[in-house]
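Subject: Sanity check before I submit

Could someone independently write out the structure tokens for this chain? I want to compare against mine line by line before I put it in a report. The sequence has 311 residues.
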Amino acid sequence: MLEVLYEDNHIIAVNKKISDIVQADKTGDQPLSEEVKAYIKKKYNKPGDVFLGVPHRIDRPVSGVVLFARTSKALTRLNKMFQEHDEEIQKTYWAIVGTLPPEDSGHLEHYMIRDSEKNKSYAYEKEKKGSKKAILEYKLIGRSQRYYLLEIKLLTGRHHQIRCQLAKIGCPIKGDLKYGFARSNEGGGISLHAREITFRHPVSQEMVTINATPPLHDTLWKEFYNNLTSRICINQNGVMHCVKIEKNLTSLALGHMILARLSGLPAVRLIVIQCGRLAWMCSRNIEEKELQRGCECAKMKLRKARKIRRR
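---
Independent answer below. Compare away.
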């Protein structure tokens, strides 16, 4: 079943499964883009063909956030942002590896060459003819008995970049036979997940952050995810609202919830955004000054939010 993460009149984002292909290819398998078109056509009772642009792709064996454009205006602007590697587009991935990297965090720079015939890329320490510079940052965020979870900030967009660069430092991704991991994963995917994308909305110009939950049917992903997140609930007018957030953001989330409760706003929910900050979303009829109050409160620690509550 299609998992829609975000949608408005101009864009839609979904959580891709490892078996999905984003666009049609020579396999003839139904692409994710057609599934999204069918969803839009049914939900909005659209007659005729549905427009859907594909500015953003991830590899078939990878899971996570994929962004589509619902209008030609959005597609043109998103294409430009992705092609120019705009600094306002930030992509975060999670990768499970079987070898501990040399440092708990690091900045990797390589020169990559793509072999189209083999559908594989190669990374080199020094520039070669026809190579392109590839840059990423990683940090270790989880451990199990046999595996390690890395968070990766992708700073350039090269073919198989994360897979290739991690393999280059001796840390191939779990299940990635092409880049040197010893065994395949059940189902044929690899343990690489497009966790988050942050970008400037192509029409409203507001910053948008979209998160995707990793495939929790996989016991290893589930273990890492549960270790990284907390469940927080609030009772609002007799209705229980619950969210899962990263554990190091718990105090911020509680402070945010206190303000939400004070404001008495309907349909309150939380989203985790870039760099560990929090923002809120609520009903469209909220006044601008209330939204500003909410964003300010999201920056407060719990103890400061409690002071507000006592006033």
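---
OP: Matches mine. For the report I'm noting this point. Residues 38 and 44 are 10 Å apart (CA to CA).
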